[in-house]
Design a protein that fits this description.
Elements: H1 19-26, E1 45-46, E2 52-56, H2 61-66, H3 73-84, E3 92-96, E4 103-106, E5 110-113, H4 118-135, E6 139-143, H5 145-152, H6 158-161, E7 165-167, E8 180-184, H7 187-192, H8 198-213
The structure holds uracil and iron/sulfur cluster.
Iron/sulfur cluster (SF4) binds next to helix 4.
C-alpha cells in the first residue's frame, strides 16, 4: 500500500495549509489509534519561516501534558546542544514524526514511552509533510531513527549516515528549492548514555547540529 492510499492523517488535513489551520485541524486527527489514550495532539512549534526544522520521534510524557514539543528533559538537552552548535533556537521550528504520545502504564500510574510503529509513523506523516511545505525550511534535522525513517525510508540507518546532508526522496514534498536533510541521534539517546562515552556522544550530537547549520545559506 502506498503512503497516499494508506489510512491515516491525510483525510483530516484542512483545505488551507497554513500552520495555524494545520495545528487546529490536527487536534481532531483520528488517523491512527494513538489519539485515544493521549491527552492531546502535540503539533510543531516555532518560527513559521524557520530555516532549520527539527523533527523528533513523538511527544513524551511532559509534552503530552503541556501540548508542545521538546519541553521535557530531551528538549533541555536539545536546547543546550543547539546553543553549543551556534543555532538560535528561536529561529527553528520543532516538531515530531508522530503527534500523539504512545505509552504503556506501569503499575497503573507511571506512563512509559513506547516507540511508535511503522504504521503509526506512516499514518502521521501527512502532518509532517504539510508542516515542511508550510515552513519551507532549508535544512531538516531528523533527531533519531523514527524521524529519519519517516522522511528517508525504513531502510535508512542513522548510524551509517549521521551528519551527512542527504536529499528527500523525489516527490515526497512539493518544494523548490528542496530542503536538505541531516540525520542524527535522538537527544534522549545522548541523555541516556551515562557511560564514560557521554561527553563524546554529546560532542558528536553538537557536531551534527553544526553540520546542519552550515547547510543554511544566508539568503533570508
Ligand atoms: N522526544 C521527542 O522526540 N519529541 C519530543 O517532543 C519530546 C521528546
Ligand atoms: Fe493522527 Fe498522528 Fe495522532 Fe495518529 S498519531 S491520531 S495520525 S495525529
Amino acid at each position: 500500500m502506498t503512503a497516499a492510499k494508506a489510512p491515516g492523517a491525510a483525510r483530516y488535513l484542512p483545505a488551507e495549509h497554513g500552520l495555524d489551520a494545520l495545528r487546529a485541524a490536527a487536534q481532531c486527527c483520528r488517523g491512527c489509534p494513538l489519539f485515544a489514550d493521549a491527552t492531546q495532539t502535540v503539533f510543531g512549534r516555532g518560527h513559521p519561516g524557520a530555516s532549520i526544522m527539527l523533527v523528533g520521534e513523538q511527544p513524551g510524557d511532559q509534552e503530552d501534558r503541556v501540548g508542545e514539543p521538546f519541553v521535557g528533559p530531551a528538549g533541555r538537552l536539545l536546547a543546550r546542544a543547539l546553543e553549543d552548535a551556534g543555532v538560535d533556537r528561536a529561529s527553528t521550528y520543532e516538531t515530531n514524526a508522530v503527534k500523539h504520545f504512545k505509552f504503556t502504564r506501569k503499575s497503573g500510574k507511571r506512563r512509559i514511552h513506547q516507540k511508535p510503529g511503522r504504521t503509526e509513523v506512516v499514518a502521521c506523516r501527512p502532518w509532517l509533510i504539510a508542516e515542511i511545505e508550510a515552513v519551507r525550511p532549508q535544512v531538516i534535522v531528523c533527531l533519531g531513527a523514527t524521524a529519519a525513517q519517516s522522511l528517508l525510508g525504513a531502510a535508512f540507518r542513522v548510524s551509517a549516515e549521521r551528519g551527512r546532508r542527504v536529499l528527500l526522496p523525489a516527490s515526497l514534498v512539493d518544494l523548490e528549492p528542496e530542503p536538505v536533510v541531516v540525520a542524527t541521534v535522538h537527544p534522549s539517546a545522548v541523555l541516556r548514555d551515562r557511560s564514560e562515552r557521554h561527553d563524546e556522544s554529546y560532542r558528536l550530537f553538537v557536531d551534527d547540529l553544526r553540520s546542519a547549520r552550515s547547510g543554511v545559506v544566508a539568503t533570508r
